[in-house]
């Protein structure tokens, strides 16, 4: 009975923190005055980019895009590029911040955004081709979600505008045992690790400069007390079954 009351108390205490953004009013419409500003990430060495150059001549486009046409591998039933089993393919940015394009040659794009890189590549391609159309995006923009989520894994995304909520949604959302008020974000910045705590119970998470993720960010969701209680309950049940079995055996042997 004492164990049952303890589990009931723990479960009630933990479920009060389950809803997200609890400070948003129940009015028909709520507006946040300030929200986080998205900053486009800069291209770095070892990034892999999907680059497509389209020209009037389809045959020429095929030659230029011989690497860019390799699609991300997927598992049946999953969305292309949004899968923990995706394998990136494209143009590798070398240690000098350059990529080597067929016919066009080397182009230095390190430190640029994908939009700036697109304009630069288009300028270089226009010397060789007439009215080229260029598309550039990340092929290895990866975030990792661990802990109390439905599908913990590393996810490769075709879009660099990814928020914390996007990543958690891809990972199947937090389980009932996940601590929503203390989500840990781990980010590497200039060779150093940054650790940030985010409170998903509060709408202020939308104002955080860490709301939008960067490449190779790691999100860890800690378990709450309810998880420990559930594990203790399972362990207690196991001990109870073993104790009951031993008691039955003792009674049987005592009657022999």
Automatic annotation (TrEMBL):
Entry-linked Gene3D superfamilies: Outer membrane lipoprotein wza domain like
UniProt key word Signal: yes
Keyword Ligase: no
Any one GO molecular-function label of the UniProt entry: polysaccharide transmembrane transporter activity
Domain Polysaccharide export protein N-terminal residues, every copy: 42-137
InterPro entries: Poly_export, Poly_export_N, Soluble_ligand-bd
Domain Soluble ligand binding: residue ranges: 142-192
Pfam families: Poly_export (PF02563), SLBB (PF10531)
Keywords, sorted A to Z: Signal
Name of the protein described by the UniProt record: Membrane protein
Organism: Pedobacter lusitanus
């Amino acid at each position: 009975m004492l164990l049952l009351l303890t589990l009931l108390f723990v479960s009630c205490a933990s479920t009060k923190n389950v809803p997200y953004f609890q400070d948003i009013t129940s009015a028909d419409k709520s507006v946040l005055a300030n929200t986080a500003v998205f900053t486009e990430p800069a291209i770095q060495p070892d990034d892999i980019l999907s680059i497509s150059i389209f020209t009037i001549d389809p045959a020429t486009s095929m030659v230029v895009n011989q690497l860019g046409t390799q699609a991300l591998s997927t598992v049946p039933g999953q969305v292309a590029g949004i899968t923990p089993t995706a394998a990136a393919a494209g143009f590798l940015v070398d240690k000098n911040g350059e990529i080597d394009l067929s016919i066009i040659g080397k182009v230095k794009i390190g430190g640029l955004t994908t939009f700036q890189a697109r304009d630069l590549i288009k300028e270089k391609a226009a010397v060789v081709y007439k009215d080229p159309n260029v598309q550039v995006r990340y092929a290895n923009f990866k975030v990792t979600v661990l802990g109390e989520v439905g599908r913990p894994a590393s996810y490769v995304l075709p879009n660099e505008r990814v928020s914390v909520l996007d990543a958690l949604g891809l990972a199947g959302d937090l389980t009932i045992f996940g601590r929503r008020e203390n989500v840990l974000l781990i980010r590497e910045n200039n060779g150093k690790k940054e650790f940030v705590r985010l409170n998903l119970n509060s709408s202020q998470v939308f104002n955080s400069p860490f709301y939008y993720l960067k490449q190779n960010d790691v999100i860890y969701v800690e378990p709450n007390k309810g998880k420990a209680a559930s594990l203790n309950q399972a362990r207690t049940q196991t001990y109870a079954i073993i104790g009951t079995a031993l008691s039955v055996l003792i009674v049987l042997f005592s009657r022999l």
